[in-house]
Design brief:
Elements (H helix, E strand, L loop, with lengths): L7 E5 L4 H12 L3 E6 L9 E4 L5 H15 L4 E4 L14 H11 L1 H14 L5 E6 L12 H21 L4 E8 L5 H8 L4 H11 L8 H12 L10 E4 L13
Parallel strand pairs: 1-2, 1-4, 2-3, 4-5, 5-6, 6-7
The chain binds nicotinamide-adenine-dinucleotide (NAD).
The site of nicotinamide-adenine-dinucleotide has 29 residues, from helix 1 and helix 6.
Length: about 250
């Protein structure tokens, strides 16, 4: 479990859910981990900076603080994200701008600020958190899906731009994962237990994805062990994207 020894990782959205699981996994693997999150909670990381990925100045200051503290950045996990519900007619321009500002431009801002340091790393990797909605049409998620589709396309474009600089760029596409985010969604449902059962039934493996499963996939893509893997989207979705199962008779 020492794939990351000597390496410094930045995890956005590391205070909660998938990000916090990534913090644990990378720390267990020997990385020094810095969390960048709106929340003051550190997600268990010994070092965190309060930052808003939708604010370029805040991002630059946070990345500067990480470099001042650790002297380098080897791994960037662009995981901070927000959701949106509705079909294409439902969301206002402001909502479209806000979700893209966090989910897409947030990734752009943090990557841009980290690139000079990643270029100096012998084991540079960026891993972005996309979603199953980037590859599979789900109802009532038009805006969110568009933003995560952009994350997937950007992952491939970045992988091709930065390969020659020794920076690998991949993403994960989680299915519905059991995080505080989904907890908040369930809390607003008329019947949270029935809603949870419906979400579980939508996953071919019959349950929600755990944050730790997503974190393990992210850790693999961030690790020097995946040195020949770049431009990949790795589904962690219980088969949701790839499988068409027969219902039992
Ligand atoms: P979460 O709400 O538990 O955690 C998200 C974290 O991002 C929070 O700590 C929040 O403070 C932080 N954040 C939000 N906006 C920010 C901003 N502007 N600047 C800095 N930090 C900000 O959610 P999660 O379920 O762990 O989701 C993490 C990522 O995984 C998101 O990108 C989400 O789109 C993606 N994802 C989640 C699921 C799921 O079912 N939970 C499925 C697929 C993809």
């Amino acid at each position: 479990m020492s794939d990351f020894s000597g390496l410094v990782a930045v995890v956005t959205g590391g205070a909660s859910g998938i990000g916090a699981a990534v913090v644990n996994r990378l720390t267990e693997g020997g990385a020094q981990v810095a969390v960048l999150d709106l929340s003051a909670s550190s997600g268990g990381a010994p070092y965190s900076v309060q930052a808003d990925v939708s604010d370029d100045r805040s991002v630059r200051a946070a990345v500067g603080a990480v470099v001042a503290r650790f002297g380098r950045i080897d791994i960037l996990v662009n995981n901070a994200g927000i959701g949106a519900e509705g079909h294409v007619g439902d969301n206002t321009d402001e909502e479209w701008h806000r979700v893209f500002d966090v989910n897409v431009l947030g990734l752009v801002r943090v990557s841009r600020a980290c690139l000079p340091y990643l270029r100096l790393s012998p084991a540079a990797a960026i891993v972005n958190t996309s979603s199953v909605v980037a590859t599979t049409g789900l109802p009532q998620r038009a805006l969110y899906s568009a933003s995560k589709g952009a994350v997937l396309a950007l992952t491939r474009a970045m992988a091709s731009d930065h390969l020659h600089e020794g920076i690998r760029v991949n993403c994960v596409n989680p299915g519905t994962a059991d995080t505080p985010w989904v907890g908040r969604l369930l809390a607003t449902a008329e019947n949270p237990a029935a809603e949870r059962a419906a979400l579980e039934a939508r996953q071919p493996h019959g349950r929600l994805v755990t944050p730790e499963e997503v974190a393990d996939a992210i850790a693999y893509l961030a690790s020097p062990r995946s040195g020949s893997t770049t431009g990949l989207d790795l589904a962690v979705d219980g088969g949701m994207q790839a499988l068409r199962l027969r219902q039992p008779q």
